[in-house]
Amino acid sequence: MAQSTTVIEVENQKIDSLFYYFNNGSDKKAYQEAHRLLPQFKTNKAIVNTNFLLAYYHNRYAAIDSSIYYTQKALKSRASVNDSLSIRLTILAYQLLAINNKNKGLYHESKKWHIQGAELSEAHNETNLYYSHIHGLASTYIALGKNTEALELLEKCITYSNDQEIILGSYINLGSIYSSLNQYKTSNTYLQKAKEICEQDPHQKQALINVIINIGDNYINKGESDKALYQFYEAKKISFDNGFHNLDLIISDKIGTVLYNEKRNTDALLIYTSALPKAMSLGSLDVLMHTYLMLEKLSVRNDDYNNAYHYGKRYYKIKDSIENSQKEKEINSLEVQFETLEKEKKIKLLEIENLNKSLNIKNKDADIEKYKLQQAIIAKQNENQVLQFQNKAEKRQSEIALLKEKEALKAVELDREKTIKYVVLVAFFILLVPIVALLIIYYQKLQAQGLLNLKEKEINEQRVNSLKKDQELKLIKASVEGQNQERKKIAQEMHDSIGGNLAAIKLQFSQLTNHPEKMALIYSQLDDTYEQVRNLSHNLLPKKIREKHLVFLIKEYIYTVEDASNITINVSFFDEAKINTLNKNLQNELFSIFQELTTNTLKYAKAKTIDIQLDLLNACIFFVYEDDGIGFDVSKTSLGIGLTNIKQRVASYNGTLHIDSKQHRGTSINIEIPLNA
């Protein structure tokens, strides 16, 4: 049934939207929409393009088998599309099949698809696609070790192609080839050009990874393993961040090889064991086979012969399956050709039979002779072709038989190695018994030494505690001595100034009856005395309390503590303006409490964070102090001098102190001081 123009336009718009999502960073959305719309599409063009989009999506995320599946579906649907579009889609399909087979390690299959794509592109003047296939073919030649052929194709791409991505890939591959030829200077020249192109385009992350990988390979060839590892780990991070799983797997393989060569067996084993499930999930047979080989070598190096046997067995199994896959495809191809010839033979026979019926009766005898002769010729030709196919099939069967014999010999060899390893293990266990006995004796000696060290540690701790107590006594004595000196100073000030003023006032009062005019002098002396008392009270406060606000002092102290330690202090105030207007004596007490709590945390708590909240609400001060240190059992621990002083300071203002602490859960202290009490 003919499809209406409206349906075609609507479906074309939907296809354009899918490719817009795919090419502009929303490939997940494009993938989901494509699966939703594919069953709804009516036009062949929409179905083909949707299958191609899904194939490209799976190729981007290294789902190789899924990409091949959708590519083949697109090829089946292309027959109904117009000729020029059908050819272009076929060329793109060949390119995807070549890339996916290369990623699976089937390089000969990849080469076949690239050659077919290049021939078809050249025949229909598809220049960009032609050089895309030429570049891909060069990459496959590199994988097959045919560097001369690859160099010729890559130079051709740089000279004649206008596609920046193809030029970039050519620079990268040329750098890789010249590196393999030990021409590191030339290699770095091409890699530098590639790097400059990548740095100008933020979307060239995958190409940038390949450049870094090749630079790392150069460092390996120059014997600079540490620099190579640095490059590989950088490339691995970019691959992981951008979801390039196949590249991440290849880089892991390279890192593992470097670590193995450096005899860092533990690190290499970790890399390969983590790469193994990734290689299986991605279907990367080449990397999977090499991973099993390296795990076998590592197991042998670590004297783990049982695992070495299993890894070796899996390595040969995958290797043989790849070889058999290629041979089975060739045999199937020969069978198809044979069946085709048989069908052609039947067609020729039918044509001859029809021709025989149309011959004139007079020429029947001559025609019969001619027919017999043609039959004899055809029979001979068919016989020769059958013999050729039989020879080829026998040759393939003999090759398969030889492979089976090789497998049998390998199995016998592995069994022999297994027997030798078993004997070695038995001898090892015999030697292990006296070694274990020596280790037990050595362990007992270590236990005795450990007990001795524990006793010494307890004695040292007792000495440290004794020194701490002596230090605390000295501090108490110094504090008492300072208080006594302060009391003497206050007493002297009161005696000399305030006492003198009070004596003068008393004398003036005694003369007030006879001299009432001295009342003004008495008031003046009282004001002077009040001012002296006020000044004396202010002088008892520290200078920083008198000159600076409480909030500023706390923040300044926090900055000093954080700068001198690894602790983080978080503090909040509400509201700052009212807090700064509190009585200076109360500010002094609050600052002293804050200093004492912070000092205790630094000395004993081993905390990483302190949280402080100081609020002034409803004529009441709320002071909350918390740390995430080791804590202590409040019910079993007596309060030290610092906490006792804090308790006394709070009580002097009719406040309440609550301490909440548990071992390994930190400490929380809540203080409430009413301002109107």
From TrEMBL:
Pfam families referenced in this protein's UniProt entry, alphabetically: HATPase_c, HisKA_3, TPR_8
**Which parts form a coiled-coil structure per UniProt?**
324-358
The residues that cross the membrane are 422-443
Keywords assigned by UniProt, alphabetized: ATP-binding, Coiled coil, Kinase, Membrane, Nucleotide-binding, Phosphoprotein, Transferase, Transmembrane, Transmembrane helix, Two-component regulatory system
Gene Ontology annotations for the cellular component aspect, listed alphabetically: membrane
Q: Which InterPro entries did the record assign?
A: HATPase_C_sf (IPR036890), HATPase_dom (IPR003594), His_kinase_dom (IPR005467), Sensor_HK_TwoCompSys (IPR050482), Sig_transdc_His_kin_sub3_dim/P (IPR011712), TPR-like_helical_dom_sf (IPR011990), TPR_rpt (IPR019734)
Q: Which GO terms describe its molecular function?
A: ATP binding; phosphorelay sensor kinase activity; protein dimerization activity
EC numbers on record: 2.7.13.3
Record PROSITE patterns: HIS_KIN (PS50109)
Q: Which species is the source of this protein?
A: Formosa agariphila (strain DSM 15362 / KCTC 12365 / LMG 23005 / KMM 3901 / M-2Alg 35-1)
Origin: domain of life: Bacteria
Q: Which reaction does it catalyse?
A: ATP + protein L-histidine = ADP + protein N-phospho-L-histidine
> Know the name of this protein?
histidine kinase
Ranges for the Histidine kinase domain?
489-677
